[in-house]
What we know:
This is ThuA domain-containing protein. The protein is mainly beta. It has one helix at 18-23; strands at 29-32, 36-42, 56-61, 64-66, 74-80, 101-106, 108-109, 112-113. It contains 1 helix and 8 strands, in the order H-E-E-E-E-E-E-E-E. The strands form 3 sheets. A 4-stranded antiparallel β-sheet has the order 3-2-5-6, with no helix packed on it. Strands 1-4 form a two-stranded antiparallel ribbon.
Amino acid sequence: MYSRRHKTFAFGTEYNWEWYEGLLGGANYYDHGRNQPGVVETVSRRDVSTSGLPSRWQFADEWYNLVPFPSKVRILAKVDESTLPDGATGGSGHPGHGRNHPVSWCQYYDGGRS
């Protein structure tokens, strides 16, 4: 979950609650580096949330590393890790996700959309 004025992240809570982690695409927070600029790539424009985005755009964030990787989801956007000045490695030693570092995705889940 994200809004332009205020970040709201669902990751990093409710570890080991199977339903909740399913809501998040089967993934959960592992770590992140400092807030840093990077280039986001729009992977899919078939969703109203990404339909007006350019193919590549600048954004700064604490790029989250996830464990396990999101599954059974449609990736909407990913960060190009090669554009991160400090790389994607977080404080706990996660190596990053390489060429497929998702930052936004969607899915149908338990009768609704997430």
